Fold:
Amino acid sequence: MIFDNEPNNWKELQNFVGQMFNECGFDTEVSKVVDLVRGKKEIDVYTQDNSSEYKPIILVECKFWASPISQETIHSFRTVVADFGANLGFIVSKNGFQSGSYEAVKNTNIRLVSLKELEKEYYVKWKQNLTKQYMPYADKLFPYWDYLGKMPIDGGTIDFEKQQLVYSAYRPICSLSPSDQMLKGFTRNYPMTIPVINDELAQTGTIQIATDRQYFDFVEQNKEQALRHFKKLYRE
Structure:
């Protein structure tokens, strides 16, 4: 799924939800104060998908309670969502919901979920947006490893084994493609072992990528270094 760890408190739960929607490409604010019919109300997570045709507004209430969420809490949040005119509302609970809660939101725009259920709901959107964000970096690397790609500007040759090592070290970036943005997307096999190289383009060890979160974290942390190392290999 999207996160490798579980939140330890309410604030972390709120931040996890905010981070997820932000990484989906939504305009997101955590702890946003909004105007309602009867005054102001602080919303745990306010988010809007401005990339879609209808630009839906979503309000999220995060509950890191030791007990299931009561129907009274759900009815209160329904009023907030209705008064604000949001398109959708989520209550994210650590420990579920009391009996009758799901019946209380039947035929409404309120969804009752755990964090993992919310992650599953937005996983494809999350992966599509991160791929879109990092594709420009993958495109810059493509000519360096494609067999019909560029040649060194000095007209010399490239050490094939060294090229393969650099490619392997940055394979998570090089392998990003439009297929990652398809509805079902391309599924990678984990764990993935990646060589670590230094500025001399020599291997110094390995790292293992075991989840999508680790995969995209690797891309973020290495996107600039990858291009720098390929340029060095090609003597640019």
